[in-house]
Amino acid sequence: MRFQYRILNILLAAAVLVSLSACGPSPDPSSASSNGASQSAASTPRNRMPSDPALKSLYIQSCYGCHSTGVASAPRSGNTADWAPRLQKGMNVLLHNTINGINSMPPKGMCIGCSDEEFTRLILFLSGQSE
Questions:
Q1: Per-residue CA distances from 127 to 10, 48, 51 (Å)
Q2: What is the CATH number of the domain that holds 78?
Q3: Residue 104: which domain range?
Q4: Which keywords fit this entry according to its UniProt record (predicted)?
């Protein structure tokens, strides 16, 4: 029974990921050339991925759908401006908000089986504090 519940959670997370993956604005290719800055595809929130395969799997299943594009005001992955006010509150507050939910983010942010350590690692990655 527990195995079936885990499979159901994975399928639900995959469905949410697929439905949200196209959300958000497309990058404007003219903006990079108009301000003289160029940004590699690897550094955009949509393409940014953890180097640890286990963390990457959790990120894709639970975080990517919203944090890659900023859906519902989610802070974008690796975007220091989005994360600065949150980081000022400290890791304990960020972890509490992740576990209990905040604004549009559901409790545990779609990662029902994640441990506090995994949430901390995900927060560090999302906020650009680690790779």
A1: 24, 11, 15
A2: 1.10.760.10
A3: 2-20+49-126
A4: Electron transport, Heme, Iron, Metal-binding, Signal, Transport
pLDDT tens for 84-115 read 999 999 999 999 999 999 999 999 989 999 99
Q: Is residue 34 part of a domain?
A: no
In a domain, residue 6? The reply is yes
User: How many structural domains are present in the chain?
Assistant: 1
CB 95 within 8 A of CB 123: yes
- On whether residue 14 sits in a domain, the answer given is yes
With CA atoms as reference, report the closest residue to 105 among 75, 125, 61.
Answer: 75
Instruction: Give the closest residue to 45 by CA, choosing from 63, 31, 62, 61.
Output: 63
Is 46 in contact with 52 (CB distance < 8 Å)?
Answer: no
The residue among 22, 18, 79 whose CA lies nearest residue 48 is 79
Distance, in Å, from the CA atom of 65 to the CA atom of 110, rounded to the nearest integer, reads: 10
Look at 6 and 114; give whichever has higher pLDDT.
Answer: 114
Nearest Cα neighbor of 38 from 50, 48, 49, 30 is 30
Q: Is the pTM of this model over 0.70?
A: no
DSSP code for 28 = -
